[in-house]
Amino acid sequence: MAKKRFVLEFGMGIDLHGEDATQAACRAVKDAVSRSCLCGLLEIHNVEDLSEPEVEILVACPNPESVDLEMVKQEIPIGQKSARAVLGGLATDGLCVPQFGPDCSQVFMANAAVTVWLDV
Hints:
Keywords: GTP-binding, Nucleotide-binding. This protein is an alpha+beta fold.
């Protein structure tokens, strides 16, 4: 069997007040997942065990070394998950609201690419 891409979806996530790259990355993955209906897994490929597909997560964000990849993988409800973070996304001036945390004037944005692979 050959491993082939079944779906490639993209998402964007933002942490407005916490300067939290993990939060932005999780939101980006959730955004990608929210626009993907994988009905072809069941209706075309007859996948019975939804732990079978391989799911690759790539997130680009400020401070990629600070991203908790285990938390990011929890945004994916199926499959054998792998995740990595690279430098990218966006950090820009925002508005610090002290109730959300000290020294939090940067807005962090992350982009995600989620790829689902099948053996076909």
